[in-house]
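User: What would this chain look like folded?
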Amino acid sequence: MSNTTSISQISPVMATYGRFPVTLVKGKGSYVWDDKDNQYLDFTSGIATCNLGHVPNAVKEKLEEQLQNLWHCSNLYNIPNQEKLAALLTANSCGDQVFFCNSGAEANEAAIKLARRYANKVKEKESPIIVTFHQSFHGRTLGTLTATGQEKIQQGFSPLMLGFSYLPFNDIDALEELISIKPAAVLLELVQGEGGVIPANKDWIKKLEQICKNNDILLMVDEIQTGIGRTGTLFAYEQFEIEPDVISIAKGLGSGFPIGAIIAKEEAAKGFEPGSHGSTFGGNPLATAAGLATVSHIIETKLLDQVKEISGYLDSQLQSLKEKYSFIKDIRGKGLLKGLVVETNALEIVQKAISNKLLILTAGPNVVRILPPLTVTKNEIVEFIKALEKTFQSIEKGE
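Assistant: Here's the prediction, encoded as structure tokens.
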């Protein structure tokens, strides 16, 4: 009997997440509701995932339609939605071919495998190296956490994979080391999300691209968090005026439905051939129905024009807060991926905001991350600013 009691006190879910004391059961647009019917303004978007807000009608309708027909089939057969989504993504990017998977970590894992196999099989390079950057975040698989340039993510998982080298982010002089390292590929975020919402410097990116071109190095951009409209263009790389060889995407691609992908130029895609990589669920009819509906809606409704306008309004409101509260040291990011650099504990701000029915995130110990849906309205931003200011006031009072 005592043993039964002991077991019942342990959650059957592994303790891999530091969860906030909220149980969410419903969502629509920019709002979610908990199991006590409390309404929260959600400026996390499921960590940049629900780009069209929660349960968007345009995606819901297509999913319901697909549910009546076919849920899953093997990738040994042609999947019409997969073909259509791949065609839409390549038509609106610099890439030529797409591989579908289930998540951002899987997308970056696929990019790493593609780079290695391209180097080995196409370029006949032995022991290819992939360069990533300090403070980056590329996922939680063994390969992607090794690619991640943060020791705290790697702790406890040694021995790590071989074949990675790290350089400082935004350091233009350090790029010269690429010539001596001679890597097969470079993998980077254009805005480091988990690393503190740090945008890449455009001059730095342009030099990096030139070095990659001159030295036959694949340029791979991780757009897991920045892609699918988050920064005001469908892909963030467009704003840097570069053309990567490989783009990894996930999060916002399916409006919360699990899907990831890499988009590769034809030459880089030669690294894969039948049997070299695969995924049981990747690109299944349901996931690609969600992806096709999401990307089509963004393009057809010209939502990105709204993102550019509304992100400017958000910037102005955040600047007003910065002028009012001295502990806000900086505001950085792009589009609707914003980071408030604060002197105080960012986690304390996030926790206090919950009591004011506002959901926001951290990006390290001193950065508050703000990720509203792309469909956010000015009225919702006003509501957000009021809740955030109320949170700041309670912290100043020591409440």
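The radius of gyration is 22 Å. If you want, I can go into more detail on any region.
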